Amino acid sequence: MGGYSTFKPDDLSDAQFLHQRVQFHPDSTVLTVTTVETGARQEAYFLVRNPQGFVTVYACEYSTGPAYAHDPHNFGWRDPWGEAHGIPYQHCPEALLDRLSPLPPEVDAAAAGEARAQLQAWDDAMNAHNEALLTARAAQRPEPPADQAPRLTTRDHWTRVLNDADPFHAHRAWRAAAWENARRHAPPRLLTVDGPAATPT
After folding, report:
1. Residue 192 is part of which domain span?
2. How does DSSP classify residue 167?
3. Model pTM?
4. Same domain, yes or no, for 113 and 128?
5. Which residues does residue 100 pair with via DSSP β-bridges, in sequence order?
6. Quick one: 117 and 94 in the same domain?
7. Cβ distance 47 to 55 under 8 Å?
8. For the CA atoms of 51, 55, 61, 63, what is the dihedral angle to 10 degrees?
9. Fewer beta carbons below 10 Å: N end or C end of the chain?
10. Which residues contact 48 (CB under 8 A, 6 or more apart)?
11. Average pLDDT of span 90-103
12. Which SS3 state, helix, strand or coil, does residue 128 take?
């Protein structure tokens, strides 16, 4: 994931500037850019329609102000991550979530359910193994043998099964987390600019 810094003119809002600078597929259309101040960091959300007409969301972290003394740049951002990549930013406004394209049904719901159960079991086993390691080290006892840790090949197998049964499982997980976060927390301060209004003249 790349990072960029440059100078932002005062007459452009953060959302307008990001709309102009952040690049997506040439045939994609940025419908809306919304910036969110969460208190801990500044996040930007891009509602994007891809060449196939599917509307999805991308997000990135950005910063204002110089990164160090005498830095001529006053604005920086990271490459946006799409919801299909499990982006860590969960403060997407409900107004954007409402505009996302609906996801197609799972190809094989039973297989997807089994894969999720097996992946959860793998995660539980790995957490238990790591906890046993920490406990042994704290008590200065022999550590559990490394070959007792859950095998990554097992996790990879069930991940492939899940991808085959539900190619949109990552979208579902991210959207569920984003919706839960939107319902639990008061909306942060937003600044939104729709695509046409943000186009440079």
Report:
1. 3-104+168-198
2. T
3. 0.78
4. yes
5. none
6. no
7. yes
8. 80
9. C
10. 24, 28, 29, 30, 31, 55, 56, 57, 58
11. 92
12. helix
Given a cut of 60, is residue 68 above it in pLDDT?
yes
User: Does residue 85 have a pLDDT over 70?
Assistant: yes
DSSP 151: P
pLDDT at position 32 is 92
DSSP bridge pairs for 143: none
Other C-beta atoms closer than 10 Å to the C-beta of 180 total 11
Picking from 149, 35, 18, 11, the residue whose alpha carbon sits closest to that of residue 92 is 35
Are 12 and 75 in a shared domain? yes
> What letters, b where the CB count within 10 A reaches 16 and e where it falls short, cover 91-109?
bbbeebeeebeeeeebeee
| Polymer length in residues for the chain | 201
Residues 88 and 25 grouped into a single domain: yes
Question: Which residues are paired to 58 by β-bridges?
Answer: 46, 82
Q: How many domains does the chain have?
A: 2
The model's pLDDT over 182-196, given as tens digits with 9 standing for 90+, comes to 887 655 555 566 554
Same domain, 56 and 133: no
Residue found under tokens 């419908």: 31
Nearest to 129 by CA among 154, 114, 147: 147
Does 80 share its domain with 117? no
